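Researcher: Go.
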Amino acid sequence: MSKKYTNIWIYISLLVIPSTNAIRRLDNSFDSFDSASRNDPSVNYDSNDYRKLRQAATGAVLTPPTPEQHLVTDLPLLDPSSGIKHYAGHIPLDYNKDDKAFFYWLFENTDDAADEESVPLLIWLNGGPACSSMDGLFLENGPFHINNTDTENPKITVRSQSWHHAPAHVVYIDQPVGTGLSYTKSKTYCKNDAEINMDFYAFLQNFLRVHSSLFLNEDGSKTRRKVFFSGESHAGHYIPSMMKYILDRNDESDGVFIDLEGAAIGNGWINPYHQYAAAEITYGAGMIDLSQKRKLDKDEEKCKEDLNKGKLNSSKCFALLDVIVNNSNPGSSKRVSQYDYRRFEEANSFPPGKRDVERYLGGKTYKHSSQSMKLLSEKVLQKIHATEASVAKQYYLECTDPPYFALKHQDGLGVATDVEALLERGMRMLFFNGMNDLICNHVGNEIVLDNLEWTEIDNWKKASRFVWRPKDASHNDEPAGYMREYSNLSYLKIRNAGHMVPMNQPEISLAMISLFLQNKSFQTGRQKILNSAERSSTCPKCESCDIQSSSLPQSPCTQQEQSFENVTSSDNIIIKRNHAIISAWLAVVALCAVSFIFMKRAFKRDARSIHMYELPPSQNRFEGDDFNDHSDASTRPRID
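Model: Structure:
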């Protein structure tokens, strides 16, 4: 039957069949037609006419896509023999309103060795806010790596350390709307966590139903696989909030029950109250000295005052890192990277490779592309079923401004209470940090975890610390990182990695996520610096400490300035020398006094006829300011 006569038959059916049954029967006819005749070359299933007919049949403005419609079969630059099975496209948040849709890219695990029924769903999110999860896919832990897009020979290579080999089914999602290829036609951007959570939950429900054969049980009421989250940076804010929302909806909603198991969060932005500071990490890296650190520690207190007042977009807080970066290489345009202090780079050049991804997905409007690359990108968008983003005037960039500006007012808002709630409900939480990051550094993250109000927090603080050496990684018997874990909370610090751990350590990060998903231990060798009895859950009171680092409220107290009782031998020499100087001055004063008395007697006058000159009382003593200006300034902050 030709497309023309098929359309006529459908319109006649709508006219002659009673309306209440028409939708039901016509919907059934579409189901059978789609399943039985999807390969009919006479029907254009992606045409606007067909879509409108299907919408009329279901009574919805939009209709759910099918897995077959989102299957990617011919991705430009990818070798067809790669053997990777993947799906991509837009899924609306509300089928009754043509406005918001998320873009996703799903990779099935097809490893023969994996027990297919036990393979979990792993959701990956990048942060920002408003930075695309295509960073994760192309630059970090996805199966594709793209480069040379600024030449005539761009290419995609397959990354052997892709996380879908963990094993897991991994989905990369652009969110919130306005990020990457996810759009809102009405330009209604999320302004708070509640709106972000509602949008994400709506997408996740629709996504699971679209891929029900892979993720849902037979009646579609529950996921048949464990579900994990992972992500980095501002995803450390997104993920705990989203997971808490999902768990609450599981208890209240009649939607798909999502069997959440846990999350692995890298260099996460969790509780800014303890994370804006960078003095401790940069002092350890040798970038500042102790005097500068003391100044920055005091500035951190001003930041915290703002946060306590509800000022969550505080310039005082941003300055804590900015001043260090701006002074890291004076006289040069290259400054230390706030994402990896091993790098010095021009502004806006991190992460390496982001321009390649933007050229590949940016379409015809991307200004940094050649004409041939723009044409290739248009073809890419067609193959990943993402052309509707262009219709909504949403063009791919790594990070976009409108959703960021809608959310920046809550930059200092923390989600520690959500983390605590997840831990209390048994969610397995792995926090991992590249040790060379500044902006979400491992010092701040550890302080965040140590300050959680969790029922097991004292045991967590007393837990032993272990070296982790992955068994299957080529590490030459060197540690990949250091782990502290207790119950369902783990914290892993990874060597030789910055803000984007999988980008710097792909092999190690794959080993890490594999162990986590399979609930295996990271413990290779225990550090014996402290035993559990010596680990204190609180900082002991240190009476003689003049200055303590405000960024380390729970660390053992260290005395920044020596007390009088603890002076060294060199200090004793200085004190004795000072005593000798004082004694000499006293002798001079005494001699002058004696001389004055003799002179007075020799030139005595009648006191009644000649008045003596007297200094005003205030001039008979040192002024406090003058004295202080010449006193020992060792307890003051020294500013270069």
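Model: The chain has three domains: 1-59, 65-266+352-409, 272-346+426-495+504-526.
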